[in-house]
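User: Hey, my collaborator sent me this sequence without any context and asked if I could get a structure. I don't really work with proteins. Can you help?
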Amino acid sequence: MFYYVDKTTLSYAALFGIRKDLNLTGTQYSTLSSIFYVGWLAWAIPGNLLLPKFPVSKYLAMNIFLWGVFLIAQGGARNYGDMVAFRVISGCAESPAKPAFMVITAMWFTRRQQPTVMGLWYAAQGIGIGLGGLIGYGIGQIKADLPAWRYEFIIIGVACAVWAIVMGIIIPDSPYSTTYFTRHDRVLIQSRKRDDYQGVEKRQLRWGQVKESVLDVKTYLYFFLGLSANIPNGGTSNFGTLMTQGFGFNTLQTTLLQIPYGISQTIFILISIWVAAKTYHLNIRTYLMSVVTLITVAGFAMMAWGENQATKLIGYYFTGASNAVFSLALSLVTGNVGGTTKKVIASAVIFVGVAVGNIVGPYAFLESEAPTYTTGIVVCMISRIAEIVVILLLRLAFVIPNRNRDKKYAEGDERYNPNVTTYEDLSDWENLHFRYLS
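Assistant: No problem. I've predicted the 3D structure and written it out in structure-token form, which is a compact way to encode the shape of the chain:
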């Protein structure tokens, strides 16, 4: 929830006068939106390669604490240069977060459970948007010498830092090291994953899996999935409030209208994970992702060419379905990548795509087109169409190896027996018993 609330701070700060107070001109606001992900991108690979080296929950908590601190620092920015520096460092601190969430989820939950679990923690982003709207509305009522936009950064930054401490204390680093369970319980937790074709998670860097990641076409498809999914996100997360205001609403109405936008995201996610759970045995997750992405395409079309305020606003709410798609996409990574090192790399790669998309996205929203931003909306729609293409290509990359392995097993080669479990730290290429979810 805080992960997404802090993404909206700049957007609400724009409503509350940051552009005027810091004398932002031309593309400087877009640059502040993008520069966060430059820091994210710079630290994505090295930061995530450290994940196998340290206790994951402590490493995660440390990074969340730091991003809270630098969010507070943004509230004290004196000029454009200060904001650039603070947002770059904030991006560095935040880059390991979602990959760490994914590692923790894959560590504790089975492949069948992962879409539901990820959907639930992703649904909190919708709650975060709604909470951001309430916080923004409350901050808009503050009458003080300090500009309202500074409170936006300070209040949310303090909340993030405090929550980081709570997470570091409560979340176990692994099922094997936690004192919350007896030895029998820890063995039971591991045995639940015996049908997942994934061995014991090991905090070590295996160079063979690094090489395999470079040679695997799916690694590049994960990057393009992150990219195509987040060009629109880079735009809507930073210009969403401005576009809503452009539909004809005042500042405080705009903050409140983000609440149903957040609720719509949560509803789309909950419906999607319910359908994914009910159709697990059919192996149609990528088809489900493609259908939900079509809803976002329709939403951007309504925003671009809708003839009245209601059509544009409903279209904006439809674009919230994108988070349902991406939560399922993350479960594809955790469920379809074997080997600790390869899984960490795949997680990092998809989020490199996320970073690049969020860097590019805001520049499609031209200041000369404010407040309609037609070009930006059309670019978002095209990017969503490209996302569907990438999803279907990933399906092929999962289905074809499955068919080849099933064929060899049917011919009598027991090395490809899908019913055999291994507890070694093997990649999906090394483990011939492995079958992909599609």
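In plain terms: The chain has a mean pLDDT of 88. You can pass these tokens on to your collaborator as they are.
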